[in-house]
Automatic annotation (TrEMBL):
<dbReference type="GO" id="GO:0005737">
    <property type="term" value="C:cytoplasm"/>
</dbReference>
<comment type="pathway">
    <text>Amino-acid biosynthesis; L-histidine biosynthesis; L-histidine from 5-phospho-alpha-D-ribose 1-diphosphate: step 8/9.</text>
</comment>
<keyword id="KW-0028">Amino-acid biosynthesis</keyword>
<dbReference type="GO" id="GO:0004401">
    <property type="term" value="F:histidinol-phosphatase activity"/>
</dbReference>
<dbReference type="GO" id="GO:0000105">
    <property type="term" value="P:L-histidine biosynthetic process"/>
</dbReference>
<dbReference type="InterPro" id="IPR016195">
    <property type="entry name" value="Pol/histidinol_Pase-like"/>
</dbReference>
<keyword id="KW-0368">Histidine biosynthesis</keyword>
<comment type="similarity">
    <text>Belongs to the PHP hydrolase family. HisK subfamily.</text>
</comment>
<protein>
    <recommendedName>
        <fullName>Histidinol-phosphatase</fullName>
        <ecNumber>3.1.3.15</ecNumber>
    </recommendedName>
</protein>
<keyword id="KW-0378">Hydrolase</keyword>
<dbReference type="InterPro" id="IPR010140">
    <property type="entry name" value="Histidinol_P_phosphatase_HisJ"/>
</dbReference>
Amino acid sequence: MVIWIIYLGMEIYSDNRVIYNDFKDVIDEVLKSIINNGSGIELNTSGYRYGLNAIHPNEDILKRYKELGGFIVTVGSDSHRVEDICKDFDVAYDMLKYLDFKYVSLFKERETYFVNIEKVKSNNIA
């Protein structure tokens, strides 16, 4: 999402947050396009490691994605080191549950699999 906002020439705040209400028209169009194309979004936890103290996209954007009918969500950590693989996924899963998402999307050989968040959490499936 941040990449789209930068591409569109929108201002990013000094702490790298995108405030949904400040860009809602643009963000809604991007989210609708993602949904209409049958694509999904990645909830990325790397912001915690990079000093941003946040998951991206943030809760407001993720909530809006769900309101618009989005349901394909993957979780990523931008892990470039072994110790960062699946880092803070528990926080991401908790946010998804809080927003009433039921499934996480996993991909294998270009096939999408929907796995219940509770199952993912209890089995440490990444």
